[in-house]
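Running low. Invent one:
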Amino acid sequence: MRKVFNACTLYLGIRCLYALQGVLYSSGGLISRALLLLFLLMSIYYTCTTFGKYKFPSLLRGITCLFVLLSCYGVFLLFTNSDFYAAGNPVPKFEYLKSILLSFTPIYACYHFTKQNQLTENNIRVWIVVFIIVATLSYYRVQSEVVFQTGNENITNNMAYSFIALLPAIFLFQKRPLVQYLILGYCMLFVLFSMKRGAILIGVFALIYFLYINRKVVQKKYKVLTNFLTIGIFFVGAFVVNSYLISNEYFVSRIDATMEGDSSNRDQLYTYFLSHFMEEQNPINFLFGHGANGTLSIYIDYAHNDWLELAINQGLLGLLVYAIYWVMFIKSIRQFRENALMKNYLTIFFIIFFVKSFFSMSYQMNIYASAILGYMIGAHGISKGQYLKLS
């Protein structure tokens, strides 16, 4: 009972309840604000605890460099008098720091819970199932809200990235191939339903990698089963796509737009921000950027590209730190070449979020990605002697 009801359960439970605003209770009200405040306070506490208690390996050091940099810019933003608007909508100054804290602090919290044996191999699998349920409910909430607002049932649902973030978790079910393929198929179906082209592209990359690597690591007694499941994945996928091509005009229009090179005006955004950075005359802005939300201070929208967003906001310093962040992932993948689970997890994580960095907000991770990443670093770092307690 103690292993089930602990600080980790409370922490992740609060975060899931916060994600369910609009499903269990109204969005933006007193309940959601109270849950957010409680979650952020717990996150900051466990992050500070982790910083003071453990020596970090290279991967967590790379993550920490990016986290500290973005947090400093976010805190500084709170003391400015600037007003920001994205596509005509006001953007509260706290949103920047809030998104950074929600993205990174769960990594440290879940790393700490793993070290304290509160987040284990068994209950992380339970949480993955909970995350899938929460993601599904959130998907339908967004779907219903947008349909109600627009009166159009054919929409693009950004919750697709929640299911993309869950894909690396399938390697935690290596000894249960049926569960692996059920999670994989379930998540990919919702990615397709979302009509989000970037998410679909990333999902295809992740699917190819998983199917390729799984043939090499699967136990012999499961090879026949996995072959049938692989064939089943392709048949179901082909059936869904064919059904959409026949009956869904919006799906067809999205494909046609992609084939015609329509990038949802991202090419214009990229050109504008790249030119602005390369032609920057102020050496301070070139080196350190225009500050948090700098893209909104010079244009009407975000860059929708991590590299350009950081170049404008944090300048050359931000680009350097972000490059180090990704180099540490590559370095860690090589370090764990003898640990198949960790190597495969980090590889598919790298594929998903590195590709995403070129057309979306990759470093703004949701709880599904950051919690599992924190667990994986903690659990598999222990066996390699990479974590040393300082107290």
Summary: Residues 38 and 213 are 40 Å apart (CA to CA). The first strand starts at residue 54 and ends at 55.
